[in-house]
Specification:
224 residues, alpha/beta, seven-stranded mixed β-sheet, three-stranded mixed β-sheet, 7 helices, 25% helix, globular
Length: 224
């Protein structure tokens, strides 16, 4: 997959340009599937959040960018749907738009549904993550971001990339997400880690990692 791991969606022209580059075509010619599942996880879950995400009414631009088409892929429903059918939906999509919410809840359902098993075959698909939707691809989210706990007790995430993310840096709604807290968080993270704000995303394509930003970010732990 090609990855665009955002903090708060496609919030500025630089991130939008990065998305178009990854797609290799205008957004208006691309078909997307949106995944709202993470919005149902955690103690602060609210059904209005997934609705806003799906409908394009969210303040975090994802589904309302002018796609050719947008479908909904709810992970908790996939085990009850014919596998060949939903596999065809995923392989037919140009982009997967993955909602924020609870990272570990999302990770559980990516594994349980079988979608995570498809990731290695999605060579040309662009995965666009929003907050938890981005963090779930990292190897470790750190204790600061643990909310919902999987039945297995396994706190690992998918490890598709080799770096971790501390999102919502200095966001007014997240007063604990200061740079000082991010630096403390990074001491418990085994690999490279970035702190990013709402105007920042991390683009990953062909093994190359690039920070795209019109805001504030910091590489907290370089690769060894």
């Amino acid at each position: 997959m090609k990855l665009l791991l955002t903090d708060s969606g496609v919030t500025n022209a630089s991130i939008r340009t990065a998305l178009v580059e990854l797609l290799g075509k205008p957004i208006s010619e691309a078909d997307a599937l949106c995944i709202p599942t993470a919005g149902y996880g955690g103690k602060h879950a609210d059904p209005a959040g997934p609705w806003r995400f799906v409908s394009g009414r969210s303040p975090h631009p994802m589904t309302g960018l002018g796609w050719k088409s947008v479908g909904v892929l709810e992970l908790t429903a996939l085990p009850s749907i014919d596998r060949e059918l939903w596999h065809s939906w995923v392989h037919g999509a140009d982009a997967l738009l993955v909602n924020g919410g609870d990272s570990l809840y999302l990770c559980h359902w990516l594994r349980e549904s079988g979608l995570a098993d498809l990731f290695p075959s999605l060579h040309d698909t662009v995965y666009v993550g929003l907050s938890a939707g981005s963090m779930v691809l990292t190897p470790d989210i750190g204790a600061h971001f643990v909310g919902w706990t999987p039945p297995s007790g396994d706190l690992s995430t998918l490890g598709v990339v080799d770096f971790s993310l501390f999102p919502h840096l200095d966001h007014p709604a997240c007063p604990d997400n200061t740079l000082a807290e991010a630096e403390r968080w990074a001491t418990g993270i085994p690999g490279p880690a970035y702190a990013i704000d709402a105007q920042t995303a991390v683009k990953v394509a062909d093994g190359r990692v690039e920070v795209v930003s019109e805001g504030h970010w910091k590489l907290l732990k370089p690769a060894s």
